[in-house]
Amino acid sequence: MHFFISGIGTEVGKTITAAIWVEALQADYWKPIQSGDLDQSDTDCVKSLVSSNQRQFFESAYALHAPVSPHAAAAIDGVAIDIAQIKRPQTANHLVVEGAGGLLVPLNGSQTIADLIRATDRLILVSKHYLGSINHSLLSLFYLRQRGIEPWLIFNGEPNRRSEEAIEKLGGFKAFARIPKLTAIDRQSIRRAAERLRPKLQAHSRG
């Protein structure tokens, strides 16, 4: 199964969620487009946080230097992002695909991160509480529903009961899981989070 991890915005915990998924399922990992921090990319981060070296970490199709939206980073680097050139890696293993920013982050003049999602993907939407996150969560959920995608909603970080109830009730979605705020971001904390999630994740990830 392929898992596409997106978020309601940037800095909501997509990479941490990806690491937990990779650890829990012993999955492979791929970040199609990396913008900025190429010396310590999201691929490098996930690789450093998982405990086994038996899985594959595939090279990004585009590695852009500026820490901005992919379409802007591509323009700065003098390239154009062509979705046709983004070939998903072939693997018999589970594959975790991590997007960049939110669903509607532009890749070029007509396509967004959402256009990288396949109909057969399990879409993981990561939400984190901050002022405005209810709106961002609901907009993302409604957009996915319009596209015929029923995501797994993940709450990451400190809980906020009122916000979560509002998102679930107004959005008509029940959260799949919660990732608690991690006191440290290291292999041990990722492994513990993966161990808590693994039974449920395995039960829902057959095939």
Counting DSSP H or I runs of 4 or more residues, the number of helices is: 6
- As laid out across the biggest beta sheet, the strand order is 4-2-6-1-7-8-9
By CATH's scheme, which homologous superfamily applies? Answer: P-loop containing nucleotide triphosphate hydrolases
The general outline is globular
- What is the chain-wise order of helices and strands? EHEEHEEHEEHEHEH
Euclidean distance between termini CA atoms: 6 Å
Oligomer: single chain
Gyration radius, rounded = 16 Å
Task: Please give the CATH architecture.
Answer: 3-Layer(aba) Sandwich
- % residues in beta strands: 15-25%
The overall strand count is 9
Q: What attributes does this structure have?
A:
207 residues; alpha/beta; Rossmann fold; 7-stranded parallel beta sheet; two-stranded parallel ribbon; 9 strands; 34% helix; globular
How would you characterize the overall build of this protein?
The chain is α/β, with parallel strands linked by helices and 207 residues long. It has a single domain, classed as Rossmann fold (3-Layer(aba) Sandwich). It is 34% helix and 19% strand. The chain has six helices and nine strands. A seven-stranded parallel β-sheet has the order 4-2-6-1-7-8-9, with helices on both faces. Strands 3-5 form a two-stranded parallel sheet. Helix 5 (161-171) links the parallel strand 8 (152-156) and strand 9 (177-179). The longest helix is centred in the C-terminal third of the chain and has 17 residues, at 187-203. The mean pLDDT is 93.
